[in-house]
Amino acid sequence: MSAPRLLISIIIMVSASSSSCMGGKQMTQNYSTIFAEGNISQPVLMDINAVLCCPPIALRNLIIITWEIILRGQPSCTKAYKKETNETKETNCTVERITWVSRPDQNSDLQIRPVDTTHDGYYRGIVVTPDGNFHRGYHLQVLVTPEVNLFQSRNITAVCKAVTGKPAAQISWIPEGSILATKQEYWGNGTVTVKSTCPWEGHKSTVTCHVSHLTGNKSLSVKLNSGLRTSGSPALSLLIILYVKLSLFVVILVTTGFVFFQRINHVRKVL
After folding, report:
1. What is the pLDDT of residues 180-202, one digit of tens each?
2. In terms of Cα–Cα distance, which of 150, 120, 165 is closest to 223?
3. CATH 1.20.1250.20 is held by the domain 147-231
4. Cα–Cα distance measured from residue 81 to residue 109, given in angstroms and rounded to the nearest whole number
5. 3-143 in CATH: which number?
6. What is the per-residue pLDDT for 255?
7. Backbone angles phi, psi at 20, to 5 degrees
8. Ramachandran assignment for 116, one of left (phi > 0), alpha (psi -120 to 50 degrees), beta (any other)
9. 179-200 burial string, b = 16+ CB within 10 Å, else e?
């Protein structure tokens, strides 16, 4: 199985499971997978509810649990719980969506409800016990499914757009041919819009745009409007008609004026 298909399969499992985080196996209403201790690179779909699990340590052995949260463009946030005094403390934590799953003395896992592009970053849970310290880190990558659309432009080209995806989507064409241009537009929330333009000349009447993305692939087809090759756009045709009519009117006006002035000159000569 290829890497993109494997990742898509993981994302499908993420969206389909429902349970709680137990025994080192993270399972949430929208999100599930198995983690070992250490650092994990984790893709997560935007707008789901995600739970990040601590190392599977029994609460009776817990002394202190600390979550370190490092988000892009923000100061490091720390959420801590001390069992002896049943005290919680937060430092530089301003994101309201990132909270404990429940009371830290009952569940030390962290939840994000729901995930947004601003939650990209590194999360590490550190558990202090009489037997030593244990940690689990997550490199969280938020994925955004792009909106795909395909249309024909006025200059006999096909235009395919993958709007606000994260990461940037890849666009290919069927049948394969020369691509006029592929442009990427970056937005402040980390998403990217990809626009690809393909000439229609030399192709059949139908072309297909194939968009590849970590969240899934999508293909759209469009059939060339045969009238587009000869008559151009409706606006252009209207302008041509108006131009012809105006030209005829000017010719008639000039001819009539010329005849009128000729008659006046003839009458003056007779008098």
Report:
1. 789 999 999 999 999 999 887 65
2. 150
3. no
4. 11
5. 2.60.40.10
6. 78
7. -120, 170
8. beta
9. eeeeeeeeeeeebbbbebbbeb
Q: Under 8 Å CB-to-CB from 153, ≥6 apart: which residues?
A: 159, 197
Residue ranges per structural domain of the chain:
3-143, 147-231
C-alpha dihedral over 11, 17, 20, 23, to 10 degrees?
-70
CA terminus-to-terminus distance, the chain: 104
For the entire predicted model, the pTM comes to 0.67
- State the chain's mean pLDDT as an integer: 79
In whole angstroms, what is the distance from residue 140 CA to residue 166 CA? 13
In this predicted structure, the answer to whether residue 167 has a pLDDT above a threshold of 50 is: yes
Phi, psi of 24 (to 5 degrees): 80, 5
| Residue owning tokens 């970053």 | 121
* Structure confidence at residue 38 (pLDDT): 66
Which one, of 219, 217, 165, lies nearest residue 194 by Cα? Answer: 165
H or E element, residue 67? strand 64-71
Instruction: Name residue, tokens 């558990």.
Output: 127
Query: Are 3-143 and 147-231 in the same CATH fold?
Result: yes
Alpha-carbon gap, residue 8 to 27, rounded angstroms: 18
What does the chain come to in residues?
271
In what side-by-side order are the strands of the sheet with 110-112? 50-52, 110-112, 98-100
Question: In the predicted model, what is the mean pLDDT of residues 108-119?
Answer: 94
